[in-house]
Structure formats: structure tokens, C-alpha cells
Structure of Oxidoreductase:
Amino acid sequence: MKSKTTTDLSPLHKTALLTAGLAQLGLFAAAWADLSGRRPEAVNGSKTAWRAGLFVNTLGPLAYLLTGRRGSTWTEADVPDQTGRVAVVTGANSGLGLETARVLAQRGATVVMACRSAQKAEKAAAAIRALKPRGQVVLMTLDLNDLESVQAFVAAFRAKYDRLDVLVNNAGIMVPPLGRTAQGFETQFGVNHLGHFALTAGLMPVLQRTPGARVVTVSSIAHRFGRMDFGDLNWRARRYVPMPAYGQSKLSNLLFTYELQRRLSAAGKDVLALAAHPGWASTGLQGGSGGSTLANRLFAQPQAMGALPSLYAATSPDAVGGAYYGPSGLLELGGNPERVSSSEQSHSGQDARRLWAASEELTGVDFEI
Ligand SMILES: NC(=O)c1ccc[n+]([C@@H]2O[C@H](COP(=O)([O-])OP(=O)(O)OC[C@H]3O[C@@H](n4cnc5c(N)ncnc54)[C@H](OP(=O)(O)O)[C@@H]3O)[C@@H](O)[C@H]2O)c1
């Protein structure tokens, strides 16, 4: 189905829209205060009619700003038939990964749920199976915190499957205290980027054997706060600050995706690399403290909505390699998916090549394309 998701507004248009919306709100508040302050006989017409008119006049631009600029209407019902296709979703036992696995299975795919906890994965798979999906869900252990587990997953997958249509690099952690992976990497950089780098490299031969295969990597709006410190990618020399470290790992997801697409294109391979982000979705990622639960309730979109950009990138015939997909609403926090833009730094070819080389060196993986 042709979607209406490929339009993107320039930063100038976005700023203009936001300014117009705020001006409208200001006008509304000023008029309301003025009308409320005057005697009824001094008002030209009924105060109530004025107020209703102003209220309605504000709703239009506000709804437009909040719900999406071009009204992307793409939903999970638009995911094409996945019968006969094989997908791997990392971190499929909760949040966006669970929703992504559910939809792909419901549309007929065989979905390998790549999770670190067998117990949690069993529970999640049982929930999907209870929906009687047309496809299958299969559990395989993957702990991105340990490159030996990544290699074991790759070997087990390649022994069992001879095709891989979609790899969704979804698993992630956000702002934990300083920690180290089994190989000594800072955990966010290690799990969110390096583990997925090694996983994608290991699965590349089978992806290349599958016509039209895709690699979707889940980034975040937080990539905009990230800076690449190539002298200290693993936070050994500088004071560890969780949010910038998360930002660096999510910026790495984008640098990796764009470089992967460049290399695939240069080698003439029939594999696409795409990136997605969910905006702000209510999942377990933010910790579950009282404050984050309340903020999620008030502002975040449901996790099923958050999975739509990943699903769009993974399955839409209109999605293109090297593109980034996210929600179409205000500040890309929520809404149906469309193509979005990413920071200037994420498009740096030089940084992407440096990160690729550093990732190969740190993981000991020779990423051949
Ligand atoms: N939710 C949002 O608003 C938001 C915004 C921007 C970006 N994102 C991105 O979206 C992705 C999914 O996050 P989510 O919101 O769905 O959070 P979530 O519900 O916490 O899910 C994260 C998943 O990653 C798995 N995981 C964590 N460490 C792992 C490891 N070492 N090996 C294998 N799997 C591991 C978790 O497994 P366990 O259950 O075993 O911990 C869980 O299944 C992440 O990449 C995140 O950065 C989310």
C-alpha cells in the first residue's frame, strides 16, 4: 500500500509552524483575558460566543502541530504479508521489540526473538502465541553485553536458517550507572552499538543471500545530544555522564547505518540499511520510577505506536536504504511514521569511517561486505 509518509518539512518550515502555533496560543490567552476583564455591555456580541470562537480557532493549529504535519496514516495494518520471511528482533521480550516481533509474526513471518533472558523471552513468546499469529516465534539466546554470546547466536542462527529477510537491531539500555561489558566496553556503547555491530557482521553472509534483505537499527532523538570522542569511546579517561554516553551510543547507531548503506551500495549488494526511532514511547526503558511512570503516562505514546517506525523501515515497500524513520508529530515525539532527518554529525562520512574502524578493532570482527 502506498503510504503518505515520505514528506519531510525543512527546519525553517518546522520553526514557522511552531511559531504560528505559539502565536495562536498567545493570541487566545490575551483575548480571553481581555474579554474576561470587560463588563458584558462593553463586549461586542456575546462573551460566550467570542470564547467559543477563540477556543475552536486554537484547536486547529494545536492539533495539527501535535498530531502530525502531513498526516501520516501508516499503521501496523499496512505491514505487507510476511509469509515465508525470517526476521531477527533483538530485545524482543519487552517494549518496542515485543511489539515489532508481534506484528511481524501476525503478518506471517518466522520471528527469532533474540533475548538475553530465556525466562522473560518465554513469557513474551507465550503472549504472542496466545494471539494465534500466522507466523512462528522462535527463541534464541543473545546477550549483547558479551561478544561470545553474540558469536554463539550467529553460529546457532546460521546453522538453522539459510535466509534472513529482516534484522532489527532494537535492544538497548539507557542511562545506567557506569558499567562494563564482558569485554570491558562502557555498557551503553557496548550493548547499543558494538554488540549490534558484531551481530550484523556475523549475519551479513546470510543477509546477502536473501533478496531484498534489510537491517534496521533503532536510534533515538537523543542522538542529537551525542558527541563522538574517538580518543575515549569507552569513557575511561573522562568522567562518565550517563546521558551523553547514551547519546554517543545512539549517534553511533546512525553513523553505523549510514556507513553500512554506503558500503552495501558501493559493493552493489541487494541489502538495505535503515534507521528508526520511536519518539517517546512508554516502555521499561526509562526505569519505572514514580516520576518516569507519571511522565510516560502524561506524554509518551503507547509502545505499539513506538514500534511503527521500525516496522515501516523493516517492511514498507516505500522505505529506502540509508533513510531514517520516526514519528510525524510535534518534535517527532509521537505519531505515525514518516521519513525524518538526523543531526549533521550523524552524516559525517569521516566519523562513520572512524567508528567502523574502531568497532572492528574493539570487537575483533572483520566486517566484510
Ligand atoms: N522507549 C522510548 O521512548 C525510546 C526512545 C528512543 C529510543 N528508544 C530505543 O528503543 C529500543 C528499545 O527500547 P524500549 O523502549 O523498548 O525499552 P525496553 O522495554 O527496556 O526494551 C529493551 C530491550 O533490550 C533488551 N536488552 C537490554 N540489554 C540487553 C543485552 N545486553 N542483550 C540483549 N538484550 C538486551 C532488554 O532485555 P531485558 O528485558 O532482559 O532487559 C529489552 O528486551 C532501544 O534501543 C532504545 O534505545 C526507545
Summary: The domain at 79-363 is CATH 3.40.50.720 (Rossmann fold). Residues 90-91, 93-97, 115-117, 120, 142-145, 170-174, 191, 218, 220, 277-278, 280-281, 283-285, 306 surround NAP (CB under 6 Å).
